[in-house]
Amino acid sequence: MSPLENVREAFRSIRANLLRTVLTALILSIGLFALVGILTSIDAMKNALSETFASLGANSFELHAKGYTNRFQRGGVKGKQYPPIDYLQAKLYKKAMGDDAQVGVSAFISGAAEMKANGIKTNPNMQVIAGDENYLKIQGYNLSEGRIFSQTELNSGANVMVVGDEIKQKLFPKQSPVGQYVSALGRRFLIVGLLEKSGSGMGGGGADRLALLPLETGNQMPRQRALTFDIKTATDKPGTLAYLMGQATGKMRAVRHDRLGQEDSFTVESSESLAADLDSISGKVKAGGSVMAFITLLGASIALMNIMLVSVTERTREIGIRKALGATALQIRQQFLIEAIVICLLGGTLGIVLGVLGGNGVAKLIGSESFYVPWGWMMLGLLICVGVGLSSGYYPASKAAALDPIDSLRYE
User: Fold this and answer.
1) What residues does each domain of the chain span?
2) What does the pLDDT look like over 196-226, one tens digit per residue?
3) Torsions phi, psi for 326 (to 5 deg)
């Protein structure tokens, strides 16, 4: 028999035992759905995050106090905690960098603020940030209306604000918010600018829920604890980021009074280091998901082997007739192996398609805007299908090929 005839015979056998074959194929589909779905969703989210890092500027890095967040750990144990970067240190660092780079200083004021205007309130999930004159440019935010803060407003700590699109849609749906007043955090602010609509931003509000204040204004507001200032440094000169990071480290050590021989009391994070952390985390998630999917695929291969053994027993007389008509042991083995592979490919193809759709669906829920097609994982899934078919069908095929034609013809 030619390979094409073997494939036709495989479909004939599948139609003869349709329910049993469908159930086995579904087991394989579930395994590949889990495997491809997990890998696709992780890669889709990585792509979306990579685009986010790129939009924040490839030639930029951030400075944070070491140990003040959970990012700095050694072997799972949190390292020494250093004091946060305060307002004076941030200003001294910015002055020390001078014209070598653009330095943006900001402070997180609130992530659950409520805005009020004209008797209307927003949801209590608006983010209030205090930033300097470079904040918008370094973060990649653009204005659709109005202006940024003037130098006088920045120096005096004026009650002015730049708001995101969601705040505008909620409080001023039919008019421009520029020139209007809004109440937040116990103060009344004049809106001087409106940010362009940015979208979900991987599950967050992006710039749409942002309310930006002058840095001095945020520093003067009453609070229960000291503000933590974030510093982002950017350069327009490609290829100089590594040199600039070294220069910034030296100047921040001087500002923080780190003694000679003492480790840095801060961390320097670029988009490349964040991407490396993401790769490490996603690799662990992939490994865990792959183990679970492998267990499912192992169960599918055992079920398929059982079906093929039953098929060999049921078709013993048919095998005897084929051998009596001149079929060789190799041809019989090929027939059953191809049948097992066809079953795996049918179930595997369904699982791969569902995995791609499901993985992109998960990424979409988290905020990814693009549809990712993992050609590499799809090819791997098809190879797994063939491998499962060969491993599950080889023993039943060998058993069928070894049957004695005389005994087979006598089998009832």
Assistant:
1) 3-53+277-410, 84-264
2) 887 654 444 568 889 999 999 988 887 777 7
3) 115, 5
